[in-house]
Amino acid sequence: MKKINRRNLVQGLAGFSGLAAFASYGSLNAWQGKADVILSGGTFYTMDPALGNVEAIAIRGDRILAVGSADDILDLKGQSTRIINTAGMTITPGFIDAHSHPLFANEAVSVDVDFRTIPEVQEALRARAAVTPPGEWVMGHMYDDTKFVEGRPVSRTDLDAVSTGHPIFVRHRGGHTGVVNSMAFDVAGVTLETPDPPDGKFYRDENGFTGRIAEHALDAFLEAGVWPTVDRAVNQENARLITKRMMSSGLTSTTDAYGETEEWQTYQDAYHANELSCRISFMPSGNIYAAMKAAGIRSGFGDDMLRVGAVKFSADGSASERTMRMSTPFKGRPDDYGILTMNQEEIDAAVDDAVAHGFRIGIHANGDVTIDMVLNAYERVLADWRGPNPRFRIEHCSLVNPDLLQRIKATGAIPTPFYTYAYYHGEKWHEYGPDKMEWMFGHGSFLEYGIPVAPASDYTPGPYQPMMAIQSMVTRRDPEGNVWGPSQRISVAQAMQVCTMNGAYASFEEDIKGSLTPGKLADIAVLASDPHKVDPDTIKDIEIVRVMLGGQSLYEA
Ligand SMILES: [Zn+2]
User: Fold this and answer.
1) Whether residue 3 has pLDDT greater than 70
2) Is the Cβ–Cβ distance between 76 and 33 less than 8 Å?
């Protein structure tokens, strides 16, 4: 008797049942056991060592149906299967960012000024001023004072040349400083006689205000005048814009590493309007954390597009803005060891409370002193732990040493160090010095100790682009040619592992993403060239040709 294989059987059924069955039971391709889309040709990095050499990939619905030789996969071609020729290209899993702040920039009402010349900043702001009612604030974001070819920051007079009829506020991408124009000072009621506020500064020189303002000096401006309205619709537009930008850089999953009720609501609105281009792991804090606990919601709640991740706490200062708490001082500031924002009792209590409510935990700890305190709390809870390892997270985990590395390994904790900082923020690392930089953003050390270090941009402070991340982790070289912590360099293959599988592991989603394994979500990036084969200092320039999210091509170059 002839053996009827499954494919013959479902093809027969489809032919017999006709279109009524087809309409109610899914696509014709599914009925026939065929693929909806096939990518064939090029170099595949599946990130799954069990799969061996792959020449093509078949997708059905939002999942990977099969991978294998071109011949085998083309057997899965049905009447309506779309074949995409990827010859000469490089195909990888969609990249993952395990720590960012997607809504921080307010993309919908603010102007992106991530430029390298001051006239470009002025032109972008001028275009916005032209459509803004006189007297209302014009906002810019992604400003970085150290990046201009002019070799100087944007000044008050540069912004006066944009408009004298609008107050202008340009926020630094780090979030702690800004630049404003003369009308902004008028609107805020700040004059040359106004003293600096406590913990803040209006910078001055021989010509009066430079326009630079820092820390609590920002408040006087943010609280004055008429700001653009940011309502639910604007927030939803912010989510649409930023997830689209992130996705077109090759990211298919990101993590909002600090969200309250407004952010959670924003992602829900964008998701249900079908406007999220990137999957979101949401780390709740503050009011939404309290509300979720009260509702009995736990980490893991949600679906493949939007899921509750670990609760977020923050225990010390910043790496790029040079305030993290360390056991040794900053260079040139012998009395400055940085700042803590939680004490040991507070950290212990936060961890106990999260565990009691079924939440995973991520605590921001940059300096070695803070990482030690966070590990104390994790070790204490793990002493009586039953069940699978809870993958406690240490957000940033910037400055380590062999003792901390051993404890991180022993606890199964997951560090999320900045993946673009060595390249992008080079000019800031002089304040740590070369010795300390051998132990900062320690991707090399983490991998050497067998720790599944996660990929993290911390956007907006850090760029999220995964190609820049791979270059930064591989070269540790900044644009001036300084190499920061060369002992922490990792290979291209390791960097790709960090940005895919390790990202999935950090959110407990390694069963559905992070590799091109059949059955997983069809989240795929197609690159114009192979990061292994180009000059490592040009990896960041590799063109993203196509990005697929759940089998849909959301981006095509
Ligand atoms: Zn962050």
Assistant:
1) no
2) yes
How does pLDDT run across 336-368, given as a tens digit for each residue? 999 899 999 999 999 999 999 999 999 999 999
Q: How far is residue 34 from each of residues 66, 168, 292, 379, measured CA to CA in Å? A: 10, 56, 42, 50
Residue 374 CB coordination number (10 Å):
31
Judged by phi (left if over 0) then psi (alpha if -120 to 50, else beta), residue 71 lies in: alpha
What six digits make up the tokens of 124?
A: 């972008």
pLDDT band at 529 (very low <50, low <70, confident <90, very high): very high
Read off the pLDDT of each residue in 380-391 and give the average, rounded to a whole number: 95
ω into residue 475 within 30 of 0, thus cis?
no
Distance 320 CA to ligand 1 centre (A): 11
Q: Which of 282, 272, 285 has the alpha carbon at shortest distance from 309?
A: 282
**Cα 455 to middle of ligand 1, angstroms:** 12
Q: How confident is the model at residue 319 (pLDDT cuts 50, 70, 90)?
A: confident
More confident residue, 428 or 531: 531
Is residue 403 within a helix (H) or strand (E), and if so which, with residue range? helix 402-411
Spacing, Cα 258 to ligand 1 middle (Å): 7
Look up residue 315 and give its DSSP letter.
-
Can you give the C-alpha Rg of the chain in angstroms?
A: 25
Tell me, in angstroms, the distance from the centre of ligand 1 to residue 365's CA. Answer: 10
DSSP three-state, residue 421: helix
Q: For residue 420, report the distance from its CA to the centre of ligand 1, in Å.
A: 13
Residue 35: what pLDDT?
96
Mean of the per-residue pLDDT values of the chain: 93
Instruction: Provide the pLDDT for residue 26.
Output: 55
CA of 463 to the centre of ligand 1 (A): 12
The region of weakest confidence among 152-161, 319-328, 394-403 is 319-328
- What's the gap in Å between 255 CA and the centre of ligand 1? 10
pTM (two decimals): 0.88
Task: Give the distance (Å) from ligand 1 centre to CA of residue 548.
Answer: 26
Q: What is the pLDDT of residue 174?
A: 76
- The DSSP element (H or E) to which 13 belongs, if any, is helix 6-25
Place of tokens 């609590």: 216
Three-state DSSP at 284 gives: strand
Alpha carbon separation from 284 to 66, 261, 309, 353 (Å, rounded): 36, 8, 7, 14
Cβ–Cβ < 8 Å for 100, 257: yes
- CA 457 to ligand 1 centroid distance, Å: 8
> What spacing in Å lies between the alpha carbon of 101 and ligand 1's midpoint?
6
CATH architecture classification, 111-222: Roll (3.10)
* Residues, CB within 5 angstroms of ligand 1 (ion): 257, 458
Q: Count the neighbouring beta carbons within 10 Å of the beta carbon of residue 494.
A: 18
